[in-house]
Known about the structure:
Elements: H1 5-17, H2 46-54, H3 57-72, E1 87-92, H4 96-107, E2 110-111, E3 114-115, E4 123-129, H5 133-150, E5 157-159, H6 162-166, E6 173-176, H7 183-192, E7 196-200, H8 207-220, E8 224-227, H9 234-244, E9 251-259, H10 284-288, H11 298-302, H12 314-317, H13 320-329, E10 338-344, H14 346-352, E11 362-368, E12 374-380, E13 389-393, E14 396-401, E15 404-409, E16 420-422, H15 431-444, H16 452-471, E17 475-478, E18 483-485, E19 491-492
Parallel strand pairs: 1-4, 1-6, 4-5, 6-7, 7-8, 9-12
Antiparallel strand pairs: 2-3, 9-13, 10-11, 10-17, 11-12, 13-14, 14-15, 15-16, 17-18, 18-19
Helix pairs in contact: 4-5, 7-8, 8-16, 9-13, 13-16
Amino acid sequence: xxxxxxxxxxxxxxxxxxxxxxxxxxxxxxxxxxxxxxxxxxxxxxxxxxxxxxxxxxxxxxxxxxxxxxxxxxxxxxxxxxxxxxxxxxxxxxxxxxxxxxxxxxxxxxxxxxxxxxxxxxxxxxxxxxxxxxxxxxxxxxxxxxxxxxxxxxxxxxxxxxxxxxxxxxxxxxxxxxxxxxxxxxxxxxxxxxxxxxxxxxxxxxxxxxxxxxxxxxxxxxxxxxxxxxxxxxxxxxxxxxxxxxxxxxxxxxxxxxxxxxxxxxxxxxxxxxxxxxxxxxxxxxxxxxxxxxxxxxxxxxxxxxxxxxxxxxxxxxxxxxxxxxxxxxxxxxxxxxxxxxxxxxxxxxxxxxxxxxxxxxxxxxxxxxxxxxxxxxxxxxxxxxxxxxxxxxxxxxxxxxxxxxxxxxxxxxxxxxxxxxxxxxxxxxxxxxxxxxxxxxxxxxxxxxxxxxxxxxxxxxxxxxxxxxxxxxxxxxxxxxxxxxxxxxxxxxxxxxxxxx
Length: 502
């Protein structure tokens, strides 16, 4: 079925009416129209085409509403859970993001009679895991309070070993909020255990690990959602629909940024908790996992994003939030053809000292795709002025602002392309809506917005950007054999845990 822009606007209005139903079906605004552009005859005005197609909008909408109503009565073929079944969740890693964004949003506790959010998730938290005993205690208290509030009898569990969560047959889905270097092992084990996976961004630490998760998702058929709420933001899906419909012509350049100015140093605002004691409240060696052995360091535990053994810095933390949605907005996410990133930490070094961090405090990322599209993203923690959110096509340009989207025709094509303004494209960058989208994919056997195909392409860009920045090379990617090489054809071995020995 082909959906036109009239459908998109009406659907958005429905989303605006009820926050609880926001993006209930992740595929609602992500409609694949590979034949749509072929229908656009360049000898005729695109306005004429749209006028002719508009006559079918009412019939299309009637069919959509009828299908949606029928579908709500029973889960799609192949679903693990029914449409009304409760999703039972486990939480692995319950620090700041794992506790606040994952555990509390799923359990949705009330405070003075008011819920944390109004998105109807129909889910419960059954178990949690963390290596830090203080966080285990906090998670148990929150899970048990939610259990009592809901009047459930079954006791909740907390564990030090994540495998105990995976061994629980009642758990349908796990949320991974650990340090990046544990993402792959936990995700692969969870998928093997038959669990669906919601994994924080970036998907993992290193290039090769991303494909380990990708291959396992494809093997098991379980659902995967990368934890960037921007993947469910309505405006990017609206853009994808316009682009797939050929409204701005071939894509030329996409741009975005994530810029802050943090005088104390990015991530230094995380508290060094005095309760953290190796051998007593934390198993330091287990926390290090695949990272080479090193002495306990509270900075490395609480502010791990500053150090290369655990993180790619602002590339993996901040810019991940820009790469994923831009890929979605193209309407047909691609693997990169080549990637270049430059950055430094001169300002951070001058203020905080070279020993404060390994990672850069500003970077500029350039990616070229096989289609010819280029993507420019800049990131900074030492200046907060960023680039506007723009996707340029040969015939029109898309401008994003808040929850709005404007299409402006390029001057030579003004007689062919209609301008358009779309407002209130909900949901916004909302974590509960993103979790709801994940649960809907599970119940309806559909694709989550931050699905594995989007996540692996974004991770490939992130990993290549880190290597480009650290090696001083522009890197090329061969999708067929997943190899990396320079422009001269020299093969490049990816950075791995063995690379980080300091």
